[in-house]
Amino acid sequence: MEEGARAGVALVLKGEGTVPAPHCPHGPTLLFAKMVQGKEEGRRFYACSACRERKDCNFFQWEDEKVSEARLLAREEYNQSRQPTFSHADNVERYKAFLALPLSKRTFCRECQQLLLPLEWGRHPGHQVLSDISVSQLKRPSQLLSPLENKKTNAQYLFADRSCQFLFDLIVAQGFKRVLCVGTPRLHELIKFQASCKQEMKSLLLDIDFRYSQFYTEEEFCHYNMFNHYFFAGEAAYEICRKFLQQDKGEGVIMVADPPFGGLVEALAFSFKKLMEMRKQAEGPDDTSKELPILWIFPYFFESRILEFFPHFSMLDYQVDYDNHALYKHGKTGRKQSPVRIFTNLSPRLIVLPTEEGYRFCSVCQRYVSLDNQHCEICNSCTSKDGRRWRHCCLCKKCVKPTWVHCSTCDKCALPSHSCKDTDTGCYICGAADHKRTTCPNLQVDRRGSQSGKKTKKKKKKKARANVAKRKGAKKTKTARHTKNKK
Fold it and tell me: Could you read off the pLDDT of 361-385 as tens digits, one per residue?
């Protein structure tokens, strides 16, 4: 296939009242379409919402495919077999029994990632087991559990104490009393700890990591997939979340979300809007109160994608860092700085960033920015996105990264090592002109389409070889018969 005809895959968001999507172990699947130069071509297909590669979840079904009853039954049995051994209610009872044990009998299996009761010790021979699990450890499960670090499936990076405390202080300063923690277990822990110290704040954790059900009740944790807005416990969990958001007529609540960075922005935005609508149901017909306040943690280079769905959001300069990620660390300089930022619908003017960490207030922009984010008089804005000092290009009529130079061939700024022949082609996956295929947010699902395409091609080649071999065999048999008859 020529360069200009390379294919990709894009997410197709379905409207209300459409045919329900088939389920995989991670809930309803998502619908994708093959794209060529930004235009849809070929058949649409369903694939897993949470896993980026089919080896992690091999669900695949064409949109118009007719599935037999036997296959549907087998699929349902498989989905059930992939669910946790214990239900959330079971884990709550187990936790109560665990707390009642003396310290010497409180054990945790590191291999199975499970709290163990004495009668279960014999089922974990040869496993690495931690003993003397204290109450303080039980209150910090994110430190007891091993982080999920499969970058292509469910990468789980945990806030460093610095960032976690900043988020908590920000929430307190803004006067919020309830926090919906979507994929932020460490912030949930901090809020619960502060609540035990007479800090009036409640928190509800929504996370796809079911291991947290061992430590929290149904009122504190819901097993949730943020890529398809799916509550694994069904209507009961949905009601818990709805009541949490609608308490006090929806006032005093904020959502903090920290999705995996490989996740599709479209799918996340769809789920977040569903949560916003859930909270909005608490308003009366004449109520004109503001939408659900949100803090969305995501890398700065997804800014344009996020603004497509939430154009009124702003990106803060604050650099979020993580304990278990080698690159996303605060205090580094140049390109080594953490690229993770906070996108919010709160007014940036009201959010104070710590001056002791190198942030300053720009009186012109009326917001806090990083120290090297200098105000450009021409753009009339603090233009840096990555923490470095950007420079203004008069030819491009905008500020650009300090390592970029203006290319006369491309008529725009780019890295000195860029290839001019690729500058005008844009992205072959989604068709956008502001980025390349290698940095496209839809790149992760491109592999699904290409893998399914490769499998189809392999099957066709195999069938073609079989047909050729069959014809050759028939030809040899015919020749042998003809020779025999001559003799």
Answer: 999 999 999 999 999 999 999 999 9
Residue 124 structure tokens: 């974990």
Q: What is the DSSP track for 242-304?
A: HHHHHGGGGTTEEEEE---TTS-HHHHHHHHHHHHHHHHTTS-TT--PPPPPEEEEEEGGGHH
Per-residue pLDDT tens digits for 193-213: 987 766 689 999 999 999 999
Q: How many residues does the chain have?
A: 487
For residues 383 and 392, what is the distance between their CA atoms, to the nearest angstrom? 9
Whole-angstrom Cα Rg for the chain = 27
CA-based nearest residue to 92, from 209, 210, 193: 210
State how far the Cα of 401 lies from the Cα of 392, in Å rounded to an integer. 9
Cβ atoms within 10 A of the Cβ of 182, count? 26
Which amino acid, residue 237? Answer: A
Tell me the C-alpha to C-alpha distance, in Å, between residue 211 and each of 207, 372, 419: 10, 41, 47
At 82, list the tokens: 């992939």
Listed in sequence order, the DSSP H helices in 134-228 are 135-138, 141-144, 161-173, 185-196
Across residues 83-98, what is the average pLDDT? 95
Weakest-pLDDT range from 47-51, 284-288, 409-413, 466-470: 284-288
Cα–Cα distance measured from residue 469 to residue 7, given in angstroms and rounded to the nearest whole number: 33
d(CA 173, CA 164): 14
The structure tokens 């021979």 sit at 125
Cβ proximity of 449 and 53 under 8 Å:
no
**Cα–chain-centroid distance for residue 420?**
33
What value, to the nearest 5°, has the Cα angle with vertex 331 and ends 325 and 335? 75
Describe the chain by its helix, strand, coil percentages, rounded to 5: 35, 20, 45
Place of tokens 């300053």: 360
- Cα 401 from Cα 312, distance rounded (Å): 24
22 has pLDDT over 60? yes
Distance CA 115, CA 130 (A): 10
The DSSP 8-state label assigned to residue 145 in this structure reads: S
C-alpha 128/C-alpha 124 separation (Å) is: 9
DSSP element (H, E) containing 381: strand 381-382
User: Pseudo-torsion of CA 236, 241, 242, 244, nearest 10°?
Assistant: 130
If you average pLDDT over residues 288-316, what whole number do you get?
Answer: 92
SS3 120: helix
Quickly state the pLDDT bin for 458 (edges 50, 70, 90).
low
Return the number of other C-beta atoms located less than 10 Å from residue 242's C-beta.
16
Q: Let me know if 105 is exposed, middle or buried by CB neighbors in 10 A (0-12, 13-18, 19+).
A: middle
